[in-house]
Amino acid sequence: MPADNSILAFLATVVVGLLAVAGSEPAGPAGVGTTAALDELLLEYDANIRPPGDGPTKVGVSAGIMIADWCSNRLSVTYFFRQSWTDSRLKFKGYKEIRVAMPSKLWDPALYSPMEVDFQLLNDGYIVIKPDGEVSSTQRGTSVLPCVLTADDVYQHDGKLNCTLSIGSFGNDSDQVLLHWDKPPSLSMAARKQCSIVETKEFVLPTHNGNYSQAQVVLEVNTGVTKALLNHVIREMTKS
């Protein structure tokens, strides 16, 4: 049945009114800043200079461990890694955030794992700048760490041993960069079948080249090389 003209007119009036109210409200910050907004923000920015402020730049780190695979005295850890710091030179207004496609445009603390024997970056991740100048970077990678199984680990701990994932800043001593855990590292359901978190640490490591800040997570890894398995292998090898 065709709608009455008076009803249509009423609905049209309501819609126009709602649009007028919406238009009279102050606009909130736009979602994501454009490339032009980033270029303007970085106009006088020098990525070679550390963020200004008293004392070292405080860098918060967190890690979400997805896989921890032990084999032949090495532990392969695949994890999401997040780092964040505040740079007052990067404060802005008008957007909720600005995303950075090229990490080289910004200063970063050059974090790495001092103990790793190999590293593979699985994706470049992303960098986000917040209006207060907070910079956060998230990446996914795989670190291969030395993790030597001894006879004592087999007989005393049934094939379980502790392995350490360390995070440090390359080329920045503790007077320049200070690391801390933003929140404790986490384990995926798959990783929990392979390892557990024993403890986390934050400390300054003295070396002959200076003092360096490190953050560590100690993992108890289940290698699968149990006392029963080792005894079975020994029996098989000593059969006449």
Automatic annotation (TrEMBL):
Pfam families: Neur_chan_LBD (PF02931). Coiled coil: none annotated. InterPro entries: Neur_chan_lig-bd (IPR006202), Neur_chan_lig-bd_sf (IPR036734). Residues 1-23 form the signal peptide. Keywords: Signal. Residues 36-203 form the Neurotransmitter-gated ion-channel ligand-binding domain. GO terms for molecular function: extracellular ligand-gated monoatomic ion channel activity. It comes from the Eukaryota. One of its GO terms (cellular component) is membrane. This is Neur_chan_LBD domain-containing protein. The lineage of its organism: Eukaryota, Metazoa, Ecdysozoa, Nematoda, Enoplea.
